Amino acid sequence: MTLISPPTLCSKFEKCSAPKCPLDSEADTRPPYPDDEKCTMAAATRHKYWQKLTESQRNSLTWQGYTRKAYLARVRWSNLPQAIKNEKTALLHEARKALPRKAEVSL
Description:
By secondary structure, the protein is mainly α.
């Protein structure tokens, strides 16, 4: 039986040249370089790929297909009390309403 590596399951694998793929269990062992390309796939999509992996493959990916930073932010958010989440969500919606629409922006 041939094991398929998680990064090869990504639909962008053939064209991608990001050396630190969030679907690669070895990604955290590679040092970051300033000019490295970043993964351009949406985090939620990578997480869906992670969900399709075998249990042993999922266990090898600490961040569940997210970047370390995004995963830790999700954990912090999930640990907030619901009242604070509601307050922050309401503030975000208010801020979005205050932004000008594209048609209203003049050059």
